[in-house]
Amino acid sequence: MLHCRKFWGVAVDARNGKAYPLREDRLVLPPDRMHGMCAASRKPSTMTENEQHDPRFREIPRERVSERVAQELMGLIAAGTLAPGERLPGERSLAEMMNVSRVSVRAALQELKAQGFIVAVQGGGTRVSRGAHESDSPLMRLVRADTRNYHDLAELRAHIETWAARRAAVRATDEQIAEIARTCEAMADPNAAPETQNAQDYAFHLAVAKASHSAVYMHLMEMMGDILERTIAYTRSALCASEDERNQLIAEHRRIVNAIRNRDPDAAEHAMTRHLQHVVASYDAVDGVATETAPAETVRAVGSAG
Question: Which of 123, 182, 289, 301 has a C-alpha 20 to 30 A away from that of 67?
C-alpha cells in the first residue's frame, strides 16, 4: 500500500520521499511502481470457474471524480433545485462544498457545457441553460410573422398553466406563495410604469411555474420566456388597454393567488382557466381587426413590445 501526502498537485511517498503527480485526484505512478502495487494488492479469487464466466454479470466501471460531480449537478438541474438561468457558485466554492478538487469541478462543468445544460456567463462563471430563451429563436420569428399565432399560444397556455396552478396549490412552499402574491401586487401598482407591470405579470406566471415543483414545466416556461413576455405585453397594451380591462386582469390574478394560498387545487385551476379564457376571448374579439386592417403595422408593434 502506498502511504502518501498531497501537496499542490503531487503526492509524496512517505517511505522514500519521492513525489508523484496527481491527475483528477489520482496518482500517476511509474510502471515499475504501479506493477509492484498491483501485485501486492491483488487477492486470490475465490470464485469457481463457472462463476468467473457467468454472462449475466458484468464488471462495473470505475467513475472519475469529475463524472460524479457532473452527475450530481445534473441531478440538481433535473430536479429543478438549480433553476433555469440560475448562476452556479464558482469553481472554488463548488470544490469546497463537494469536497473535491477544482480540477474535477472544472472538468465536470466543461462536460455539462458541451451537453448544453449550462452556459458561460459574461465576465466569468456559469449558469443553468435556458434552452431556446433567445430573442431571435424560431418560435419568436414564427409569432412575429403572424399575430394570429399569439392566439394559438394563448390557447396552449390555457391548458398547461391550469395544470401548473393546480399543482402549485398542493406543492407550493410558504415562501413561494409569498412570492406569487408579491408579484401580483407589484403588477397591480397603479404608479408602476407599463413595462414594469408587464414584467411583473410575467414574473407572476413564472412564480406559479416554480411553485408547481415540476422541473420539466419550469424549463418549458423558461424556454418560452421571451415569447411569453412579449405575449403578455401585447395582451396588456393591445387587448386590455382600458382601465376596466386592466382591473379585471388584476382581479383574475388575485383569485389565483387566493386559491393557491388556501391550498385549494380545484379553485386554483378554475381561477387560472377563467383568466386565460379571458385572454383567448380578447384575441377572438380583435382577431379580424388585427389581421385584416393593418397586419404589417401590428406585427411590427408586437415585435417591439415588452
Answer: 123
